[in-house]
Every structure is written in C-alpha cells, then in structure tokens.
Amino acid sequence: MIVEAIAVGTELLLGHTVNSNAALIGSRLADAGLEHHFSTAVGDHPGRMVDAIRLAMGRADAVILTGGIGPTQDDLTREAICEATGRPMLYSDEYASRLRRWWAARGREMPDSNLKQAEYPEGATLLDNPKGTAPAIQLEHEGVVIFALPGVPAELEVLLDKYVLPLLRERSGEGVVLSRVIRTYGQSESRVAEMLADIFEETGNPSMAFLASAAEIKVRLTAHADTEAGAEALIAPFEAAVRERMGSLVFGIDDETIESIVLRMAEEKGWTLATAESATGGKVAARITAVPGASRVFRGAIVAYQDDVKKMNLSVGDDLIAEHGVVSEPVAMAMAEGVARALDADVGIAITGSAGPEPLEEAAGTMVVAVRTPEGTMARTLRLPGDRERVRTYTSTGALHMARLAMAGKWWSGRPKDGRWV
Amino acid sequence: MIVEAIAVGTELLLGHTVNSNAALIGSRLADAGLEHHFSTAVGDHPGRMVDAIRLAMGRADAVILTGGIGPTQDDLTREAICEATGRPMLYSDEYASRLRRWWAARGREMPDSNLKQAEYPEGATLLDNPKGTAPAIQLEHEGVVIFALPGVPAELEVLLDKYVLPLLRERSGEGVVLSRVIRTYGQSESRVAEMLADIFEETGNPSMAFLASAAEIKVRLTAHADTEAGAEALIAPFEAAVRERMGSLVFGIDDETIESIVLRMAEEKGWTLATAESATGGKVAARITAVPGASRVFRGAIVAYQDDVKKMNLSVGDDLIAEHGVVSEPVAMAMAEGVARALDADVGIAITGSAGPEPLEEAAGTMVVAVRTPEGTMARTLRLPGDRERVRTYTSTGALHMARLAMAGKWWSGRPKDGRWV
To answer: A190, B179, B272, B417: which is deepest, by most CB within 10 A?
Structure first.
C-alpha cells in the first residue's frame, strides 16, 4: 500500500515552521511497513491544494492531509477535498451540538466561526479528536482513502495512532518494515561504500543506504517482512557481514551516540573522565554533559584557550611548548595528563589546535587530540577541511572516538592491520 | 518568479531526518520576494525523482533540488536531471583533478567513487562548493533554471546565498527586498508583540514579524522598494521606534550574536573573560570560542561538574555550600570570583544548577547565573521549563546576556525603570 502525505500551510513554504509532521508521518508509516513515495507541502491556496490532492490520489492508495481544518478563514482543507472529489459539503448538526457543549462545559461562549468545524464532504466520516475541537475527516473516494488531520503535532500523533495506522495496516496486510542503523567512524562515506560494495550488491531486501552526519557514517539496513522476527532474520546476516568487514570502525547501533558510549565504557571500567580543551573551547565537555547521568562519571573540564592557562592550570611545561609548539602531540599528551591530575580523573581527553578564522579551500585546521587512560597516553594529529565550526565539531567527535578506542585498549590507525580494521 | 523545492532522500520519507532544508529555502525565497508554491520530498528512487523534477519544471520557473549529489551509489540526482531533461551525462576532467588535489592536500588517497562528483548533465555549470567536495549544479532547460545543491544544511546555505538567490533575484527583476532584524532578550514573544502593538499597526511596507529563537526574540522589518536606499529609508523610522521602545532589551541587529557582542564589549574595555560552568558543562565557553578572534579576550573555563571540583579548582568554600546549597546565588558568585582568580581574568561568568533529570537539591530547571566584573559581582536565579537540552541552551544564552548587562554597568531586571527598559 502506497501512502502520500500533504502538509497544508503557507507558514511551511515561508519557512516559519519546519515540517516536522512529515517526519512523524514518515516514521509511523515506515514502522507500519507502508510505502511512502512523496511528501508535499502546499500553501493555504484552494487551487494548489486541489492540484496536490488530485496528484496524490492518482499515485497513491491513501492520502494523509495535515493542517487547514481549524476554524479560521485560511483553513481550507475541507473545501479542497470537496472540490478535488466533486462532492458537496454537508453540515453535521450533531457535531455542531457537541462543539457547543464543549465550549459550554468550559464556561465560554463559542465564536460562530467554530461551526465551520462541523462541515464535512459528503460520504466522509468525522473522527473524534481527543486533543482538540477540530474533528479529523476520513473519506473513501474511487478506491483511495483520504484523511484530513490537524496540523498540531500532538493532535496529529494521537489521531495517526488511533485511526489512521490501524486502518492502513489492516488494509495493506503487508507486514512490517524494520531498520537497523550501524554507526561507524574513521572512514569517509565514499570509503565505507567501497568497503561494503560487494555486500551492497547483494542487498535488495534488506536495502542498504549510507548517511553521513558530521564525521560519522551510518549504514542503514531496511527490511520488509511479514513479521518483526522475519525482518530481523533478513537483516541479521547483512548486519553481521558489515560488522565483520568494518571491525572497530563500528561504534554503535540505531540511536546510540558516541558520547553515551564513552560514558558507558568509563562507568563499566569504574573510571572518571575529564577534558582539557583549547581550540574546541569546551565543546567536548558540553557534548558529554548533554547525556543524562553524565555526573556519575564526568568530573569536569579545563578550557585553556590562552597559552599561559595551559602552563598555569594544566602544568604543561614551558620547555615542551618551546620545543614542539603549542599545537603538537607532546603538548596534547601533557594536557591530557595535566587535566587528569588537576581534576583527579582517570581518563583525560585533550585537544590543542588552530580552528582557523574562516578558511575555505586552502587552509586546513590542524588539530591534535590526546587521551590519557590508566594504561597509557596516546596522541594523534588530524588535518581537517572546512570552516572553523566544522573543524571544531569534527575534532570533538574525533576526540570522543579516540577516547572510546583508548579505553578499549585499541587505537584507531585508519589502516587495516592483519586484514582487519582495528 | 515561481520557485519549487525538491528534497531528495529516502531518510526524509522514513522520518529519520526532519526536512529543515525546506524551511531554510522557504525563508530565503520569502526574504528575496520570490513565490514558492510547492515543496516536495522524494526518495532516492530514479523514476520518482524524474517524475518530481518534470512536474516541478511544468509549474515553476526555477527548481531547487537538495541532496543526492554525494559520491555513493544511492546519490542519483545528477542521473535524474539527465533523464528528466533528455541530456547526456558528461565528465569534467578539470573537476576530477581538483578533487584529487583536495584529497592529496589532506594526505589521503581519494576513493575512486568520488569521481562521480565530476559528472554533470550536458549544458550544466558546476558551482564551486566552498564547504564540501560535491560541486553544485546549475542548468537551464526550456526556460527553467534547475539547481542541484547539497543536502548538508551548512553547505546548502552557503550555496543558496552565493549563487542561487542572487541569480533568481536578478532574473525576477522585482526590485529590492531588505530585511533588518532587531535582536532582543529579556521578554517573551507575546510581551514583545504587546510592547510594539501600536508600531505594528502602522506597518505595511515595511512589514513586521516576530520570531522566537531559543530565549531571544527577533523583530524583523522587511521593506520592498526599487533601490536599496529606498528600502533602507522605509525601514529606518520603524527601526528607531522599536529601539526607543525596547531600550536595552535590544542587544544587536541582523546576524550579530550575543557571543560576539560580549567579546566586543570586553575588548573595548580591555577586560579578559573566563567561565565557570556546572550544569551547562562548557556550553558557554564553546559558544564564546565559536567566534573567530575569541582568543584575544577569552582566557578559558573551568567546568566543575562534580561538586568537589568546585571546591578544589574554584575555591568555593565548604561552609558556603553547606549553608546555601550548591545551586544558590552565593555559590554562583563564589564560582564567578573563583574562576576569575584561577584563570587570571577580569570577568568571570558562572553557572550552577540542575538541568534534570539528575536532580540535585533544587528542582530541575533551576539555574543560577553570576557575573563578576572589576566593578562587582551579581547573581540571578532562573527557573526554566523544558527538557535538559533546552534548559542548558536557555541558561547559556541567559548567562551571556547577563555578562553583557554587567559589563555595561546595567543588570537586567525585567522591569521598566524610569519608564525605560534597562
């Protein structure tokens, strides 16, 4: 069964509102194993709304409209459905009475404009909206089922779950769709795609997709099957093949973040964490402390933005800076060790480098990351493209991944070793 | 001129990614005075991409595609444009050499799959992408101009501003649209709207809009005129009226951020800055150091996430914590003074509080901000609604605004004083 979504509202086209309803509908349809080919936003304009509805009816089995069913002059979804299907508008005395009772129960007089919400296209069913006064509408027309739902996300979500998805799933009889996201770090999107090219060739159901987000590359497997167990069984061998191929480039699955994994690893080892940051200016600490429960493990951070703070508060030696320069592996290692000492932590994560002003093509940010654990201290130099903010973001992501590998007793080399990615 | 947007990516239809690019494009088109009737999302499916492109070409003067121009097997936008326009795919040796140089400059070997980014439909222009390796594409076909832009928001934004909007505005020949954003902090959106209600009544050209973003409220004036000077003359009296009414609630205009303003004020006074952060975990420092040139003023930060770090590294007295609790104005003031001393800075900005759901002794959402300047130390308690990340963001914004007012010798009271907002 193919479902198409149409979001109604000029505010979406003006960019005043981000169309998060489209993502909500998309994820619910995917969970229900329903196909979803197009999602459109259209303004509060009768002619263009009719065009969008007719187009969707021509290429989908079900159309989900959101927005435009409120009481004001620019709420035109009911009218557009009437025109797109050639049906007259009717009026529900019963719903009008309900509306009056709803307002009366709240001790308020109902503005007459609200009676518009008792209107419906001939043949439609009014669906009760437990979170608002605008009823939703369900209409079957020439084999296509049309829903008109409120644009308020909380109301939309309730009505999707209560009416729309049960009906569509029952009609489709098509089982489930399951996705597994394998999160990797350490190689570019194109390199990951090359590493997995032969596995990709064998995909179909499940399908495989690559998604780059900051420095992390996600490999997504999506399977269709009759049951969740069946979908899981289709995904399992591909997931295993990807994990085998990519080794410790894989750091997590689905919604796991590197921050949460670093915290969990530290907690399992009984280690506490601290960061010493120069160019990232506290970004790594801010990311770690965004995770609830971080205080069980995270001691704190010293942001040493001017060089003498590195000397004064992290005990980085004058001689070391003079000999190697501030942006160097020896200085980063001294910072990692210095912050572990100063804040009495087991693991110190340090960053020194120059994020640059706003260079584009030529000047790459040179950043050095070091990690101190009770088992040793290691450093690595990164040369990163992009502007200041990108360099800072990629460096903080890199530092967290290096902490993961250092705590696991591994250290990312970027090169295969004995045929495996370590 | 009518412009249509098409976002390419199965992740949008699966709801894994919210289509914020559509809102970005929408707001830029609105600012430029261009019409925008439909915005569509389509998956990485060749046939459906071609359908979407043909449909848009039939009803718009310009089509902006985003996504699907990366190097992997599921990046199919170039191919879809070729098919929709009946043009062959060509290959740019020059761009291929640039890609090789780009990778070589970073000391890495380029995966061959990246050469896909040197492909383009016959007749297209490759637009340089200053933030990534995938070039954007511009193609004129039967009177419609088609752009294929990257889906990465930061890359998209740069390319929209650099190439797409100037070209579309020039072609539309519709005069000049000028916006002035007046940035305010300290009152809610509805209160700001009330304060300016009579000025709003007089608007038309320019129009006035209110935009809430985190804790800051922007007042945007947008004027249409034949020339930039004409638009500026329309805006000027309204801008002056808003500033007069709102006093020091106004902190900047257009793209000025509170971070950049705090740094500029400190530099003008010859003062250095440091932060001491508990619940915000380094977020304020990270925001300050995101501004190029921050190192002239910003000394560093101490993130004291566990309580004994506050005592050890910020010299907050045991007795003070015992008497008032960690989340208290006396402790925040001691932290502000402690960090100024520890990092040898003139201004100390301190935050202590509980962002939840790790409750300390105070309710989650209770945050205390203090600022130490050479002229004195002040503190303020904020009670913020929302989840952990929202509380942390609002608090760091609040702390920066309090630093601004403290350095200006004012302290935000939220109340008018002698008829003016101080």
So the answer is: A190
